[in-house]
Amino acid sequence: MTEHAWVKEFPGAIVVCDPEGIILYMNDRAIKSFEKQGGKDLIGTNVLDCHPEAAREKLKGLMDRQEDNVYSIEKEGQHRLIYQTPWYQEGRYAGFVEIVFPVPAEIPHFIRKS
After folding, report:
1. Cα dihedral across residues 40, 46, 49, 55: positive or negative
2. pTM confidence score
3. Which residues contact 22 (CB under 8 A, 6 or more apart)?
4. Which sign does the torsion angle of CA 88, 69, 107, 105 carry?
5. What distance in Å separates the CA atoms of residue 15 and residue 9, rounded to the nearest whole number?
6. Local confidence pLDDT in tens for the 114 residues of the chain
């Protein structure tokens, strides 16, 4: 997978997998975030194997249906936004991407008019 320069040091964790769940790419933040689970050695393994049963089933369903999943968590006092989404290449489903980045506990929300 071709890497764009901005992705490597992006402050959020980015993990990209193929349609079967094989991890194709992890940026620097993802490698560090998943260091205890294997870090860079996770590339080439199945992302589904990195999740407990309930989460694995949910992720598998999202991948099969090619659906987005967006939610926030708090871990070790840090609020994080999780964005999981399918990615496409030349219009064909190519796999799934997870982007995790820190966010403030309270996020401003604006309504913009057209």
Report:
1. positive
2. 0.89
3. 44, 45, 46, 47
4. negative
5. 13
6. 566 888 988 999 999 999 999 999 999 999 999 999 999 999 999 999 988 999 999 999 999 999 999 999 998 899 999 999 999 999 999 999 999 999 999 999 999 998
